[in-house]
Amino acid sequence: MIERYTRPAMGNLFSLDNKYRIWMEIEVLACEAQAELGQIGITVEEASWIRAHAGFDPQHINELEASLNHDVIAFLTDLGQHIDAGLPVGTPKPSRWVHYGMTSSDLGDTALCCQLVQATDLILEGVRALAEAVKRRAFEFKDTLAVGRTHGIHAEPMTFGMKFASWAWALKRSQQRLLAARAAIATGAISGAVGSYSSIDPAVEGYICERLGLQPDPLSTQVVARDRHAQLACALAVAAATLEQMATEIRALQRTDTLEAEEPFKADQKGSSAMPHKRNPITAERICGMSRLVKANCQVALDNVALWHERDISHSSAERVAQSDSFIALDYMLDKMRWIIDGLVVYPERCLANLNATRGLIFSSKALLALIDCGLKREDAYAIIQGNSMAVWQDIQAAREGKCLCQRLLEDEQCPLDADKLAAIFDPAAFLAHVDVLFERLQGLGF
């Protein structure tokens, strides 16, 4: 991921330095486990020496890899040199016990799972922080009248707070998916060339995994199966799609024709190089664009599930890019979306003006039910309401003065509803009688 969208904490998790530190810890733990088991020649003293003297030089590793063309061997060579440095000539080299009975994937896959757990924890913190901001703003606008839209067309009255509330529940579901994916990916494998523990005791795997906060893979085939990684990538993609949904709604609400809300706009910010009046939803648009990356990378993870026989490395090159990019992008998106939500400017007066813009058409469903309650057949009641509604709509489209739907129904001889009943029908409160239930449910939602 380019530096522009990389936040330091997440970027550091996918740095070579962090990867090599985890690799080193796994190799040291393996030596300690072997010394404790006593099945091979390594002594407790040698394991202690390895722990005290283990180190690595990223630049030297890169130089070694340039000739060896194998990143793990380059790392192990450098690690061994650090461990053995300063020992008298002729002294047995403790580094000979490093990587004993292990294969490259034991090291790489277990370390990768550690990194992915670390990264998922950062994402979960971002989801929690955003969800709490969304929940707070939902209650802020709990009673702010607004028009609901279906197909982009005015439908029925609602409250603006319901928009935030729906996002809060979506973020809760993302949190649950991420937690499940975290449990699946928190897996290690130290099982040898084809996963049969041919040259290493399973107890070594258990020792390492326990200290790294992982669970041993019950049957790895040299690699940790990539359906686990795909589950995590899918959880990231759905979270990104949820942020895209939120950003898309904010962009639509900021349209000049609607203008019920705006993303924050700083005092010294510029909206356009050509048009000084512009205040564009650029951050929401950026979130929508970056969502495409995370969703596309999910397909990469799904394609990585199918490997030849017990293992190949067709997944490796792809996931080196896709995994880090997805995490870094989503981490950035969560931070920016929280900034938008915290500073989102809402215009209640414009919400009310938009609600009334269609001259009562949005109350048609209540009027329809009222006619049915009076004894009319649904088809007949529908015809009365639709006929009057289309007349109002034609006036609106022609931009001419005209009667509202309530007045037209009052004057329609086919409509048996009197002025008092119509007044009650055309009161937004009639649509919001049960909205409190939604916010009672939201009140109990924790993150």
Name some characteristics of this structure:
447 residues; mainly alpha; two-stranded antiparallel sheet; 62% helix
Low-confidence stretches: none
Instruction: Give me the Rg, rounded.
Output: 31 Å
Structural class label: mainly alpha
Q: Shape from CA axes? A: elongated
Strand order of the largest sheet: 1-2
Q: Please report which band the strand proportion falls in: under 5%, 5-15%, 15-25%, 25-35%, 35-45% or over 45%.
A: under 5%
Average pLDDT reading = 95
Rounded to the nearest angstrom, the distance between the terminal CA atoms is: 29 Å
Name the helix and strand elements from N-terminus to C-terminus, one letter apiece: HHHHHHEEHEHEHEHHEHHHHHH
Question: What's the total number of strands?
Answer: 6
Number of helices: 17
For the largest beta-sheet, the strand count, sense and barrel status come to: 2 strands, antiparallel
Proportion of helical residues: 55-70%
Describe the protein.
The protein has 447 residues and is mainly α. It contains 17 helices and 6 strands. The protein has a two-stranded antiparallel sheet. The chain has a two-stranded parallel ribbon with strand order 3-4. Strands 5-6 form a two-stranded antiparallel ribbon. Helix 6 (104-140) packs antiparallel against helix 7 (161-185). The longest helix is centred in the first third of the chain and has 37 residues, at 104-140. The model has no long low-confidence stretch (mean pLDDT 95).
